[in-house]
Design brief:
31% of the residues lie in helices and 24% in strands. The chain is α/β, with parallel strands linked by helices. Helix 4 (124-137) crosses helix 10 and helix 4 packs across helix 11. The relative contact order is 0.08.
């Protein structure tokens, strides 16, 4: 474990921040009081949802030898007091210094590997996973951090081998802990998802980043950011990461021009897109383009044209947008110095990302695609991708999360009705809202003449769709993807769609 390598005193650690503290040795920094032990330092920070300072008594009772607590008074910075057996050190503006504090404690782990940060509304998870696949096939030991979890990427890939991450991008302290753990395992590359929330909250401030990837920008998280302009600006904070050497941009997304304008002058820009015209790019720009895309029952085929070479390519991935994901990954790999011929060899080995347009087939029943799409744009792309492969009707089974951006619900309904022949509204992570009220919000965006069915229980909704779908139909299950739970009324209920579907198909076709 990494903790065996980082037992140290808080005295020299806090000295870097102008604080004289006593010689108290700890082996880990923790933000969650539930993780406190007699060997950890509890970081009591004023967060966005909770104030960690309220949990100081709990940390003391659990035997924390050191507590570093945020203070709103700059004059109190460095003030130390003893309470029972715990030393409490006051730290001004601690929230904004978390990443720097954790980086120093774990000996700047990001500097020991190549780091790739991927941001954008859609595609982050897929690009991170495809990058890990490509580089692993090239003999590079890779780690990954994101929605699927964190840990070492190994073939054959098993999502259960990853450690669960509470957020798309872990908190600032956990991020450096994970990086240090991966560095101890001699990992040479780490690809991670950089969410807009994480960038605004400074979780990545001191994570040395070699490559920044921007996938796209569509409607999402406006309940947090307030406007598309603020959301876009939050994403572009990735360009402020230290040591940035390469920026990989989606040429088919208008927001990429703002990225190019704000990119560091020392960073090389690589553009990727569909049927990209190299003459439209700035002189000397690097590029990766998928030309003349064809959809086949086996996946996608196209001519890969790049600044490094050209060749026909066939991928076992479903959906045109997966061409974008593969191009983004290829752009990163090539920018890091991989030979074009080696890239082609590794592209042939790409596998679908768990829960991302993952296809399940049965002998006589309909085909099922499980996808994580939970935004209007992602759902539209998923439906379009599935439609390109269908020979019969297209069904869409989905819901929307409770206590999240309600404004997107009617848009999701409209997109579903326009892209599918049949819509079944059901549960997602309803949280404390009712599935019925969420479904009504979605239904408000759907034309009254559309084929819509509402079934509260998600398993029952899926069973209904599969029983009524014909052999050549495709049933798209959107929203859950890789997740193995449902969040209902404050409880996480075990629910693994990817495990449920094969069993249900077998039952229905028996």
């Amino acid at each position: 474990m990494v903790i065996s390598r980082f037992i140290q005193s808080i005295e020299p650690l806090l000295a870097k921040f102008g604080i004289f503290a006593p010689d108290v040795r700890v082996e880990r920094l923790v933000l969650d009081s539930r993780d406190v032990s007699s060997k950890t330092a509890f970081i009591a920070v004023k967060g966005h949802a909770l104030d960690g300072r309220e949990f100081i008594p709990q940390a003391i009772s659990l035997g924390a030898p050191a507590i570093i607590a945020e203070t709103d008074d700059p004059k109190a910075h460095g003030h130390c007091t003893m309470r029972h057996n715990s030393v409490i050190v006051e730290f001004y503006d601690l929230n904004q210094s978390l990443s720097a504090l954790a980086a120093a404690f774990y000996d700047y782990p990001a500097t020991k590997m190549t780091t790739i940060a991927v941001t954008g509304t859609n595609g982050k998870t897929s690009v991170v996973q495809l990058l890990s696949q490509l580089r692993t096939a090239l003999g590079v030991k890779c780690g990954m951090i994101g929605t699927l979890g964190s840990g070492l990427y190994q073939e054959p890939f098993d999502i259960s081998e990853l450690d669960e991450t509470r957020n798309t991008t872990p908190d600032a302290v956990k991020m450096h802990y994970i990086l240090a753990d991966l560095a101890q395992q001699d990992v040479h590359q780490v690809a991670f998802e950089a969410s807009s929330h994480a960038l605004v909250q400074g979780r990545l401030n001191q994570v040395k980043t070699d490559v920044a990837v921007f996938t796209n920008l569509t409607h999402d998280h406006l309940d947090y950011h307030g406007s598309m302009e603020a959301y876009a600006k939050a994403k572009r904070r990735l360009l402020e990461q230290p040591a940035l050497r390469h920026v990989v941009l989606n040429a088919d997304d208008a927001e990429s021009m703002n990225w190019a304008k704000h990119s560091p002058e020392t960073a090389q820009i690589v553009w990727f897109g569909i049927d990209l015209d190299p003459s439209s790019l700035p002189d000397g720009a690097k590029y990766c383009s998928a030309n003349a895309i064809r959809t086949t029952p086996q996946g996608l085929s196209f001519e890969l044209a790049t600044s490094w070479g050209s060749s026909p390519v066939q991928l076992g991935l479903v959906g045109k947008f997966n061409a974008y994901n593969a191009l983004a990954a290829a752009g990163v790999v090539l920018s890091l110095g991989t030979r074009f011929s080696d890239l082609l060899a590794s592209l042939k080995q790409l596998q679908p990302v768990p829960g991302r347009m993952e296809l399940f087939r049965s002998g006589t029943g309909p085909s099922v695609i499980v996808d994580y799409a939970h935004t209007p744009d992602a759902l539209e792309h998923a439906l379009a991708a599935a439609s390109a492969h269908k020979m019969g009707d297209l069904w869409c089974v989905f819901g929307c999360g409770g206590e999240r951006d309600k404004g997107k619900r009617p848009h999701m309904g409209k997109v579903a009705a326009q892209g599918a022949d049949h819509v079944v509204l059901t549960a997602d992570n309803a949280r404390t809202e009712t599935v019925e009220s969420i479904s009504q919000d979605i239904r408000s965006g759907i034309d009254e003449h559309a084929s819509v069915t509402m079934i509260t229980d998600r398993k029952e909704a899926i069973a209904y769709a599969l029983k009524h779908a014909k052999t050549n139909d495709i049933v798209l299950l959107a929203g859950k993807g890789h997740e193995n739970y449902q969040d209902i009324q404050g409880q996480r209920i075990a629910y693994d769609e990817r495990a449920y579907i094969p069993a249900l198909l077998k039952e229905l076709t028996a």
